[in-house]
């Protein structure tokens, strides 16, 4: 994109005024971003043909799973509460070898299984146990 150069400088008075206004705008923008920042954790998940590499524990809240397939077969990804028979959430489509996808979900404290729902991949080892911890430690809200 070509920059437009104005041949004349603006009057000195206007220039001096512009800087405080820009600083004020930046402060307002910064405050807004800080206030509205959602609890959003990015979690790297790497799928292989015989395993999943990812953290064992996460903190409760909204998480974005950044899924990469480093296996030779296409893989999917599903998240299920331990002992449950339905998925909390799963990827809409399979991830090709070398491909990646993201899955956003809200996680409550508890135990989960993250696995590949394709064929017998789960039995082949494409699964990982995940523990989701409460967002705040219980000691903080408890008394002495
Ligand atoms: Cu798979």
Could you name the key traits of this structure?
144 residues, 5-stranded mixed sheet, binds copper (II) ion, alpha+beta, 3 helices
Q: What does it look like?
A:
The protein contains 3 helices and 9 strands, in the order αββββββββαβα. Strand 5 and strand 6 form a beta hairpin. With 144 residues, it is of the alpha+beta class. About 6% of the residues have low confidence. The strands form 2 sheets. The protein has a 5-stranded mixed β-sheet. Strands 2-1-4-7 form a 4-stranded mixed β-sheet, with no helix packed on it. The protein has one domain: Immunoglobulin-like, CATH 2.60.40.420. The longest helix is centred in the N-terminal third of the chain and has 25 residues. Bound molecules: copper (II) ion (CU). Copper (II) ion binds next to loops.
Tell me the strand order in the biggest sheet: 3-9-8-5-6
Bound molecules: copper (II) ion
The CATH topology annotation reads as Immunoglobulin-like
Number of E-state strands: 9
Radius of gyration: 24 Å
